[in-house]
Amino acid sequence: MSRTKRVVAAAAVAFLAVGVTACGGNKDNSASGSKGAVIVGTIDSVSSLDPAGAYDYGSWEVIDSVYQKVMRFPTGGTKPEPDAAKSCAFAADQKTYTCTLQSGLQFSNGDKLTAASVKFSFDRMLKIADPNGPSSLFGTLESTEAKGADQVIFHLKSPDSTFPSVLATDAGAIVNEKTFPADKLLAGTKVIGSGPYTLDKYTAKQQASFKVNAKYSGPVKAQNSQFVLQYFAEASALKAAVKDGTVNAAFRTLSPTDTADLKKTQGVKVVEGTGTEKRYFVFHAKVKPSDQKAVRQAVAQIIDREGIAKDAYNGTVAPLYSMVGNGIDGHTDAFKDKYGAPDKAKAAAILQAAGITAPVALSYTWTPSHYGAAAADEATAIKRQLDASGLFNVKLSSTEWQQYQKDEKAGSYASYMIGWFPDLPDADNDVSPFLSKSPFLGTGYDNPAIQALLVKEQGSNDPKVRNEAFAEIQKIVAEDAPIIPVWQGKQTAVVRDGVTGVDKALDPTMFRFYELSTGK
To answer: Would you indicate the residue range of the signal peptide (predicted)?
Structure first.
C-alpha cells in the first residue's frame, strides 16, 4: 500500500470541521455571523484544481475549501468525523468500510451528490492514476460500491486501520460526475464541488477568490463570507505586501529573517503553531553514486542537523532523526541511534570499507519556487558540510517546481530536497509514501522487509504491534539511508490588526481559511 502527500506533504493532516456531531453537524452555512473578505498572501503554487491530479500543499489549500469529503478531521482533532457522511463503520474483518451519506447533499450548481458521486470520484482517481495525484494514498482500496442513493461501501484488499483517516484527507474529495470526465483530468478552471466555498475566480500564479457556498451541507461554519488567496513568486514580495496592507494575512512561506522583521512591525502580529512540516534529503538508489549504500551512509554520518537549523533557519526548525515526525506515536531517533553526532572520521571509514575513493562527486538538486527562500540556504549549508569533510564534492542545481516534480519521479536526480506535510497524524503516513511497493516519490529504493512491516502495522489496531513495526522500519531506514530526515518545523502565520481566528486557522497541517475573519 502506498500513501502520500507531497508537499504534502506535509503533510499529520487536515484537522478541519467545527462543531461536528455524530449525525454530520449543523447544515446551516449561511453567511450570517460571518465577516468580510480576508486576503491571504502565500508563495505556494497550485499544480491542479482537479483532486485526481493534485497532491501538493498549494493545491490542497484550494481543494480543501471547494470540495467535500466523506469524512474530515475537526479543527485541532486527530480522529476523523463525518462530513458528507452521516455515519461510517468497519465490518468485523476490517476489510469493508460502509458509509451512509447525509440526505439532501448538493453540489454548488444544484446537482445532487449521491453514493454514485462518491463511487465515481474514487473510480476515476484510481483509473486516471495521475503521477502528480493522490491515488497512491488508496493502495488498499480494491473497489467502491454504491448501494442505493445514500450508501457507499469501500472494499479493501487488506485490513487497513488508517483508511478512515485517509478518507478524511483531501485525496478523498468528492467530484460531480456530470461535470468531471471519467478518464482524464478536468481541463480549465471552472470546478464544481460541494464544499464550504465555491471557487469564484482563479488565475494561475496570481489569485484565487472564494465565496461561501450556499448549498453546502456539512459541519464547517465559515467565519468570513469570502476569502482571497494572493500568490507571490518570492517571500520578499509577500513580506512587502504584509507591510503595506495589500494582504491582511500571510501563510507559507516567509523567511526566518522576514518573520523576525515583521515581529517588530507595528500593526502586524506573528502567530506560531504546532508544525508537521519536514525536510528530507532523498537519494535515488538506482542513480550513481547514490546506488551505493556506503555513499548514503557516509552522507548520513556527516549531516549536521543543528548546523542546518542554525545557519539556514535561525533556529526556527528542530533537528529530526527519523522519517516519523517528532511527537507522533511510534517515533524513534533511529538516525541518532545509528550515527550519533556528525563525524568525518566515521564517514571516511564507511567509504574506505566499501572501497570507495574520496572525494565522491554527488549532485544535489533543490527547487527555489516551492520551499521558501531559506531552501537555498539549506542547500548551501548541506554542500558546505559535505565538501568540508573532504569526502564529497557536491554540485548544486535548482529546478522550478513543476519540472522538479516530473524529474524526481523520473529518477533524474542522484539526490534532492523534498519537503513533507503528512496527510494524517499517523506514523504510517510518514513512511509508506516513500517506502511502499509503489512509492509516490522516485527513490528507486525497494525493501521487501519494510513492505511486510507496513502490511503488518496497517492491518492492526493494536498500538503495541504497530509501534514495534514502526521501530523496526525506522531502524532499517537508518541502516540503508535511502532518505535522511533533516528537520521538522513550526507553522507561522502573519496577520494585520483586525484579523481574528488565526489561532484556530493554524491547524497542524492545513491552514483553515474559514476560521479567519476581518471583523468588518
So the answer is: 1-22
CATH of the domain at 374: 3.10.105.10
Q: What is the pLDDT of residue 28?
A: 37
One-letter amino acid of 341: A
Q: What is the crossing angle of helices 428-435 and 463-480, to 10°?
A: 50
Spatial CA neighbour of 516 closest among 287, 127, 228: 228
Residue 81 dihedral angles phi and psi, to the nearest 5°: -130, 165
Residue 511 pLDDT more than 80? yes
- What digits encode the pLDDT tens for the residues 288-325? 999 999 999 999 999 999 999 999 998 888 899 999 99
Per DSSP (E only), the strands in 157-286 are 197-203, 207-212, 226-231, 249-251, 268-273, 278-283
Residue 163 counted as domain residue: no
- Cα separation, 322 vs 440, in Å, equals 19
- % of the chain residues with pLDDT over 70: 93
Query: What is d(CA 152, CA 113) in angstroms, rounded to the nearest whole number?
Result: 12
Higher model confidence: residue 214 or residue 458? 214
Whole-Å CA distances, 308 to 8, 248, 356, 377, 392 = 22, 31, 27, 9, 17
The number of beta carbons lying within 10 Å of the beta carbon of residue 134 is 32
Residue 353 CB burial class (10 angstroms; 0-12, 13-18, ≥19): exposed
Task: Give the cell for residue 455.
Answer: 502490511
Give Cα 9 distance to the centre of its chain: 2
Question: Is 442 part of any domain?
Answer: yes
CA–CA dist 97, 71 (Å, integer) = 12
Give the pLDDT confidence score for residue 26 in this predicted structure.
33
The residue range of the domain holding 408 is 278-489
Which secondary-structure segment (H or E) carries 380? Answer: helix 374-388
Residue 299 lies in a domain: yes
> Rounded CA gap, 496 and 267, in Å?
6
pLDDT band for position 271 (50/70/90)?
very high
Give the count of domains, the chain: 1
In a domain, 301, yes or no: yes
Query: In b/e form, how buried is each residue of 288-311, taking b as 16+ CB within 10 angstroms?
Result: ebbebbbbbbbbbbbbbbeebbeb
Residues 6+ apart with CB under 8 A from 222: 29, 31, 34, 196, 197, 212, 514
CA–CA–CA angle 280, 285, 286 (5° rounding): 140
DSSP SS3 for 274:
coil
pTM: 0.72
Q: What is the three-class DSSP state of 60?
A: helix
Residues forming beta bridges with residue 250, ordered by sequence position: 41, 494
| C-beta separation of 326 from 508 below 8 A | no
